[in-house]
Amino acid sequence: MFFRPARLTLCASIGAGAVQLRQSKCSTRVIVPAGEHLNALLAAIPRRSTVILTSSDRTPWTSDGFRASFRKACARAGIAGLTFHDLRGTAVTRLALAGCSESEIAAITGHALTDVRSILDRHYLSRDVALAEAAIHKLEEHIARKTVKPPVKPTGGSGAGGAKT
Length: 165
Prior knowledge:
It contains 6 helices and 3 strands, in the order E-E-E-H-H-H-H-H-H. The protein has helices spanning 36-44, 63-77, 84-97, 102-109, 113-124, 129-147, and strands spanning 9-10, 18-22, 29-33.
């Protein structure tokens, strides 16, 4: 399978707070707002060009060079069986767990909405215990709201049994 890493560039037209990329598979242009953490990381690295991921010779990664470096980084971290593409699916899952809508996720990852749903259905969310616990909690809250009886209004009388004298 051919892999060409996305060319990640700082998006000057949007400001320093965004990353722009064009996906290799379908040439979809994606602009991702950079959060506080990413902005801090980008500010800390030396700026060689508008391209964020560059090789040691300051040129954009080739697919082979990127793949080899990613594999080496995984080996150093003790991670086996992970590809860079797997991280995109992980991003879909983390965004969903954070409460993002499928449309919001697609805007960040560049997936089609049907692909976002497919990733969530097929690989990730069905195995997430936290989602199952949240669903049960919502169900219990719903049941509690339905079973709470409104307070009974007094019928206006005095004495035992509410009879008037």
